[in-house]
Q: What sequence folds into this?
């Protein structure tokens, strides 16, 4: 006999965070409604590069480290699970990551990362220039170009075998398909949802002529969450941070076995097994402007094409931009909004939302069910910043 569904949950915002939460809750037999004003996962969640940095559960101390480690573990599981449910391969693979520093500032930043990996028992190797060149060899003449001084010499290089990647567009497609199979009530192109409030608590979500009522509400609207929850008379400060990416197609890459992520200072190349290579990404505070700009894309292209012959000869396909949801202290907002126990928020993952989506979904589903949490959510509580709209900040 089929088990009774537990709670009716309404989620507003169908990016990777909303979709992951819907998937996790539906697996636990909740009745879930997911509302998205445009297409599912079309914003930052699609625009991102899909890099999943390494983590270690055994040594994780700070709740952020625990969330990272749990997220990494679940990514491996979900990749298989989603393939079984939907037949979609999300491209998850432990491809390793090469980290290169060229300037004094980049070396200092990489030293900081090295110390962090050391203290967290995250495996890495220090490479000499020849070994770093070898890791870059999938870009064929890339090593030669660097040696000839077209870009500055490598001053420090590390190899991190635990770095992974997935194809976020494939993962999103798999999540949507799995949510459908599990009976999530999916509403995309639903228009801009509005929170309705009665006696200080959420009474429903209105969009067009429709109203959706649940026993619990989750707000997962990325950088638009601050605006979305205003009817609750709370201020949740957020900042959209634009990132632009250039996409190439390189025929030769498809035959190479190992295609690591290349982190070169603040920029990266992400080679996919189908020969696509992403070059990213800018970090710009330009409000909600999600357009690409010719100058930034050209800078990305100049850097990417200077790295290797393959990319110089490759077909530049297109560029795009997305808005990362940032908070002002670097931690996401995860937890209850107010005291009612019916409204929750999950956003503000900034540069790590693809990585942290799995852990966020599982921990928030536990929170929704009143279970013991694997992650101490106190540093992520929206209460750390929320103030009543009328509160004067002195
Ligand atoms: C260039 C770039 C590269 C990145 N690379 C990586 C990476 O390699 N690894 C990583 O972990 N992260 C990466 N990120 C960050 C990651 O993409 C984001 O943190 C993550 O996608 C945020 O997901 P989200 O679901 O919170 O937000 P979004 O994807 O923005 O989804 C929010 C959704 O809410 C909807 N919405 C908003 N308001 C309403 C409303 N009123 N009613 C209904 N719906 C609404 C929006 O339409 C949107 O679809 C990158 C981001 C960018 C831009």
A:
């Amino acid at each position: 006999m089929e088990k009774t569904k537990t709670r009716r949950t309404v989620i507003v915002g169908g990016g990777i965070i909303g979709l992951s939460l819907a998937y996790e809750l539906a697996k636990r037999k909740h009745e879930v409604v997911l509302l998205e004003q445009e297409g599912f996962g079309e914003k930052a969640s699609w625009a991102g590069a899909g890099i999943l940095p390494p983590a270690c559960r055994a040594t994780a101390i700070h709740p952020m480290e625990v969330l990272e480690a749990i997220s990494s573990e679940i990514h491996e599981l979900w990749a298989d699970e989603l393939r079984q449910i939907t037949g979609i391969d999300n491209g998850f693979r432990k491809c390793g990551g090469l980290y290169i520093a060229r300037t004094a500032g980049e070396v200092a930043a990489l030293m900081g990362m090295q110390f962090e990996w050391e203290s967290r028992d995250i495996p890495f190797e220090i490479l000499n220039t020849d070994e770093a060149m070898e890791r870059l060899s999938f870009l064929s003449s890339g090593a030669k170009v660097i040696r000839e001084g077209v870009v500055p010499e490598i001053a420090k290089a590390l190899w991190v075998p635990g770095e992974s990647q997935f194809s976020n567009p494939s993962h999103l497609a798999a999540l949507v398909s799995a949510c459908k199979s599990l009976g999530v009530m999916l509403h995309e192109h639903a228009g801009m949802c509005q929170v309705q409030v009665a006696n200080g608590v959420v009474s429903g979500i209105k969009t067009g002529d429709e109203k959706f009522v649940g026993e619990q509400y989750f707000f997962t609207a990325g950088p638009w969450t601050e605006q979305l929850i205003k009817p609750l008379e709370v201020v949740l400060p957020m900042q959209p941070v634009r990132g632009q990416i250039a996409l190439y197609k390189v025929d030769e890459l498809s035959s190479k076995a190992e295609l690591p992520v290349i982190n070169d200072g603040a920029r990266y190349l992400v080679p996919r097994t189908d020969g696509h290579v992403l070059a990213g990404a800018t970090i710009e505070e330009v409000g909600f402007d999600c357009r690409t700009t010719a100058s930034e894309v050209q800078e990305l292209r100049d850097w990417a094409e200077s790295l290797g012959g393959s990319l110089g000869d490759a077909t530049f396909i297109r560029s795009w931009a997305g808005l990362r949801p940032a908070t002002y202290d670097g931690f996401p907002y995860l937890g209850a909004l107010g005291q009612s126990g019916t409204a929750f928020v999950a956003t503000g993952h900034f540069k790590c939302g693809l990585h942290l989506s799995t852990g966020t979904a599982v921990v928030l589903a536990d929170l929704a069910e009143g279970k013991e949490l694997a992650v101490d959510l106190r540093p992520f509580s929206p209460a750390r910043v929320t103030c009543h709209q009328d509160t004067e900040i002195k």
About this structure: The chain has a mean pLDDT of 91.
